[in-house]
Amino acid sequence: MKLDTVTPLDGLVYRLVVAVDVEGYSKLDALDQSLVQSRLGEVLDVAAHNAGLDRSQWYRQVRGDGELAVLPADADTASVLAHFTEEVARALRDLRAAGTPLRMRLAMHCGTLTAGQFGLVGHAPIVTCRLLDSKVVRKALALGEGDLVLVISERLFDDVVRTRFHELDPSRFRPTRFSVKGASYAGYVCPGAPRGELVES
Q1: Domain for residue 197, yes or no?
Q2: What is the pLDDT of residues 138-182, one digit of tens each?
Q3: Which member of 99, 124, 149, 158 lies 3.0 to 4.6 Å from 111 by CB, making a disulfide possible if both were Cys?
Q4: Residue 2 falls within a domain, yes or no?
Q5: Contact (Cβ atoms closer than 8 angstroms) between residue 19 and residue 109
Q6: What is the domain-level CATH number for residue 179?
Q7: Structurally, how many domains does the chain consist of?
Q8: How many CB atoms lie within 10 A of CB 108?
Q9: Mapping DSSP to helix (H, G, I), strand (E, B) and coil, where does residue 22 land?
């Protein structure tokens, strides 16, 4: 996995932002952290490929235990939400079956942003990261039986999940609200894939 892969953003854009983070990364030693980074990169690459997405076209900011990415303007948000998330859950299930489990949080939000000198600038990446790092989402993963917890913004739930396009199931999401640094955030949490149980392949 490269340290950084960037597709330039031209001006202020309205895009889908996706962020992922691995559970328990900071508690690992350097060797295990390196192995986790490799497994995470493989999970994201395989999931994107199987969902018909090209990660080389994403604007990506790599963090030690995760990634913040902006998808291209032509990305089908409902399809990404349904199929990419499902493929991530499937890849994590396969890792567990192989004896190398990886547990992670995944956050999504749509909004305006641009590229700054030290990374993404705008409300969209802030909201996405706040959702990803919220205590309620961390707790949902820690207490859950699965290896993936998805959290999306209230806007994304209202605009996309409620449509039920790509068999998205609104009943799998539960609302959550929390405050960080004096700002209030609303989102929806989904354990695992947002279309129900994975179909064995």
Answers
A1: no
A2: 999 999 889 999 999 999 999 999 999 999 999 999 999 998 888
A3: 124
A4: no
A5: no
A6: 3.30.70.1230
A7: 1
A8: 26
A9: strand
